[in-house]
Amino acid sequence: MAPFIAPPLTLPSSRVHTFIDHHRTAPNLTPAFSWGNEDGTGVTNVSHFEFARAAHRAAELLRPGRCGGAQVDGTTVAIVVATDALIAQTLLAGCIIAGLVPFPISPRNTEAALIHLLSSTRTHRILATRASVGPIVDPLVHSIAAAHPSSGYPLSIEEIPTFRQLYPFLGRETPDDAFTPYPPPSTPPSPKDPVLILHSSGSTGLPKPITTCERVFFAFCALENVSEMARRAPRAYTGMMPAFHAFGVLMQFVGPLAHGLVSCLAPPSTINGDCVPPAPTPQSTLANAKKTKVDAIVTVPAFILEWAKNEEDVEYLVSLKLLVFGSAPLASKVGDVLVRRGVKFGQVYGATEFGAVNKLVPTGLEEHEWSWMEMSERARVRWEATEKGIFEAQFLTTEDVYYPAIENLPDLKGYATRDLFERHPTKPHLYRIMGRLDDVVVLGTGEKVVPNPMEDILNASPHITGAILFGRERIQTGVLIQPSSAYAIDPRDDKQLASFRNLVWDVVEHANAVAPNFARVYKEMILLTELARPMLRSPKGSVAKKATLELYAQDIDALYNTVEASSSAAGEIASPVAWTAVNIQPWLLEHTSSLCGKAINPTIDLFEQGFDSLNATFLRHRIVGALRASPSLLPVAQQIPRNFIYTYASVQQLAHALQELVVGNAGGAKRDAAAAAMEAMIAKYSSAGLVGFLPEGQMPTGEGAVVLLTGSTGGLGSHVLELLIANPGVSKIFAFNRPNDKIPILQRQEAAFAERGLDTTALKSEKLVFLVGDSTKADLGLPAEQYAEVKRSVNTIIHNAWTLDFNKTLLSFEPHIAGTRNLIDLARAMRATPRFVFTSSVGSAQAWDLSSGPVPEEILDVRLAVGTGYGESKYVAERLLLASGLRATSLRIGQVSGSATNGAWSATEWVPAIVKSSITLGHFPADPGAVAPFLSPEAVAKAVVDVALYKEEVPAMMNVVHPRPASWNVVFGAMAKAAGVEDMIPIDQWLKEVGERAERATAVDLELVPAIKIVDFLKSTIKRLSRAEFSTVRADTVTSALREVQDWDERDAEKWVGYWRNVGFLDE
Predict the structure, then answer these.
(1) Which of 18, 188, 666, 817 has the smallest set of CB atoms within 10 Å of its CB?
(2) Which ranges carry the Thioester reductase (TE) domain (predicted)?
C-alpha cells in the first residue's frame, strides 16, 4: 500500500472542502478509520479515499446538485444525533463539501440550551436520528416558534442518510467502483468564512456556539499535538470521544485527514438500522481497543481512574505506546503510580476556542513529570501573572501562523483562557495546570462546572449561610453547605443530616435546574459544616472557598469514599417488601424517576431515556445501600459490579438480575458475617495509602537478586532459604524472623536446618544476613540503618511467616495481616518495585463448591474463603496484595508434607494429630472419595523460588498442589501400617468418635487424641479440601516443580511416622 499523502494545510493553497477531497483525488487508500469485527475475524478499515467519497455522497443527499446557489452557501445545519462516530464525522464532512456549515450539537442539552444554540446561529435545519433523539428535537418545532412570537421561527427536522447510502462498499471501496463526484463550488470560500460551529460545555447554564473559520481550522490543524500522536502511535482508539465535542472532532476528523492518524472506533451499531450505539464504558473501551489492535488510547481521566483499579487493565495500558488524556487533569496520585508501572502518557490541552496548543509529550520530560506540559511554538503563549508563581495562559494571534477562534484580549489579538498554570521550578518551558480564574470545577469526566450560578441560588435560601460546590477530578459534584444558625444541626447524626437534606432539597433542585445534567448535585452529595468549623471568610465577609475546601478536604474525601456504601437515599424510599422482581421493579422505578427527573418506562433502555453515567453511578449506590441495610444481603451488595447498570440497562432487566442474585444467596447468617468480617479487615488494611498501581521497576532476573525472606526458621522457610543460598543468581538474602530472647537467630536457624536434614554449613554463606524484628511495626522493628539498607537494596520479597493454628479466629491473625501491610508499604517505597511472593494456602479456598470443577488460579470471591481463621487470614492477605499495585503473586499452597530427606513434619499440624489420635482410638479414618494432596517441602520450596526469580510477568495467583495426589485411603492406610494399626473405619464414624471424646475430654484425652482440638476443622475444611481439585496450568508455565514431582511412595509414610517417633510425638 502506498504511504499516506498529507494534504496541504496552508492558505491560500487549500480550503477545508479541498482538504477533504484531497484524499479522493490523491488517492489515499490508507486507513482513516478502523474497528475490530464483532465475529473476531480481524478489523475493518475505512480508507481516507472511501471516507472522502462518502462525504460526497452525503453532500448530494443533503444538498442535491448544490441546489440553491449562493443563497444556500454558508447555511448552518445542526446535527443532533445518536449514531456511530464514523457517520457523525461523515455528515460533518458532507456538509462542508456541500457548502453548508455543520453544527454538531449534544443531544444531552436541555430544551432551553437547544433553542439558544439554534437561535443564536440562525439555524433552521436539523439533521437527526429520530429513533433516538426524536423526543428531544421534535418538540423544538413548536417551542422555538413560541420563543419568537413576533416573527416565528421555521425549523425543519430531517432524518440523516443511512449507513448503506454513505458506505455502499464498506471497507472495500476502490477507485474502480462506480462513483459520481459532487460538483465543486463556483467560488472558493474566503479565509474568514465559517466552516464549522461547535459549542461550549454549557457549564455556565447556556452553552455558547463557537465558529471556526477556514483560517482558524488550518491553524488548528498545523498544531503538532495530533501529528506527533500519528507519528508515535499511528493507531489510536478514539471511540469513547463524543463526535459533537471539539476533542472528538480533533481525534476523529482532524487527526485522520490532516495527519494520517488511524482513528479506531467501536464496531458500528447502525449499519443495518436505527440501533443506538451503546454508551462507552471503561470496560467496553478497553475491549474495543484490544480488538482493533491499537497503539494508543485517547480518553478522559474518569476512565483512567477506573482502569487503575484493575491489575489486568493496567498491564494492558503498560503495553500501549501511549495513553493520551485530555478534557481534564488526571489525579496526580493515580498518574504517578501508573507512570511508575510503565504507562506512557500523552496529554492534550486545548479548547474549542483556541485548539490543542500543547505538545503531546514535552521535550526533556522525565517520567515523574508526566503532568507538566509544553506549549507549541506555533501557538504563541503569553503567561499573564495572576499571583505569585501562578499564570493565566493567553494565546496570541500570529498572522498566517496561528489564529484562535475567539479573540477576547483587551490589548492584543488573542484569547485569554482563564486557565491557571504553575511554572516548573527548574525547567521554564514546562507548565502545569492548577485551575481556573473563574473557579470552574473540572470533573474527572472532562466536563466543566461553573459553580457560581448554582451557589448563588443556594446562598439565597434562608436555611443556608454558605455554599461551595466541589468535585475536581471526581465523577460527580457535591456541595458543602453551612446551615443558618436557626437550622444548625450535628451533621454526624444521620437522622438530623437526612432531615436537613430534605429541608433544602427544593432549593438544591432549583440550583440543579440551571446546570447541565452532569453538574447535578444529588442528595447523597450534600455535606454540612460543623458548628466548630464554620466556613472561612474574607475581611469583606465573602466565603474563602479555597481555604474552606482545604479545611474540609478530609470530610470531602470521606464522603466520596463512603457514598457507595451509603443507604441514606435508598432508605428514603422503602425497600422492596420482598426481593423478587415483581416487588423490585416498582422500587427501581421510583429511584430511576427521581434520578432522571421524569417518568421511566421499565422495558426501555435507561440510557435511551436520558440516563447518563452519573445517574447510573447513583442508582448503583442506592441499590447497594438498600442491600447493605439488610445484614443477610450484605454478600449480595458486594456482588454488584460497577458496570451493573450498563449490563442490565432497563428497569425490568435490573429487577430480574437483582432477584437472581438474592435467590442465589440463601446461605446462613454466620457465613455472611464471616465474609463481612474479612471484607472489613481488607478495608481496614487497604486504607491509608494503599491505592493504585506502582512502576514495573526492574524485574528480578535471577542475576543479582536481593531477597527478603520472612519466616526462614519454619519448615517451608528453611527449605526456601537453602535453595536461595545455593542459587548463584541470588547475591544477598535478608532472613527476617521474630525475636527470641533465649535463643540467638543463627542458633535457631541451625536447629531448623538440622531438624530437616539440611546442610547447616550453608548458613555460613557471606550473602546471608539475619534480621530480627517485628513486622507489626511500620519499620519492621529494625534499626533505621538496617531498614534503609533493605529498602535500598531488596528487589525480591518472599513473605512466608504465618502462624499455623486452625482454632484461631480471623481477628487473632490480625498481627500477621498488619505485618503484611507493613511489608507492602516497604515494597511500595522501594525505588524499583520488587517481586513480592506470598505463601498462601489452599485454605483461602476452603468453601469452594466442589461441583464447580477445579479451583482456578485466581483470587476468589470472599465467601469461598469462609471457614477457619487461618484460611480467612490468608485470603485477606491475598486481597491486600491484589490491591497493592505491586508485582505480587500469591501461591495457594496445598498441604506440605514431611521432608523428603528425613520425613520431618511439624507435630503441631493436622495430619500428625490424626495419626496420633488414630493410634489411641485403634483405627484410622477411611474416606474412599478423597485424596491426600501432600506435597514435599522440597517441591514447594522450588516452586516458591522459581516464581520469585522468574524473568517474566507472573500471574497474581497460582495453585501449588500435587498434580497427581494419591487416594486418602492409600496414604492413611500406609501410615496406619507404619504405626502398627490395622483397622480403618469410615471417616464420619471416626469423627463422631473423636467428637464424643471431646465432650468429656480430660487433659490426658487432649494429649492422646489431639484431633479433639481441631475436630470442627476436620469435619468442615479437611473433608472439603480433600475432595477439591486445583488447576495448576499457570503454575506449570512458571515452574517445573509440579511437573517433576514424584508420585507418592509408601516409604514416605514410613519416614513421617519414624520422624514423629524420633521427636517423641509418638510412642516407640
Answers:
(1) 666
(2) 709-943
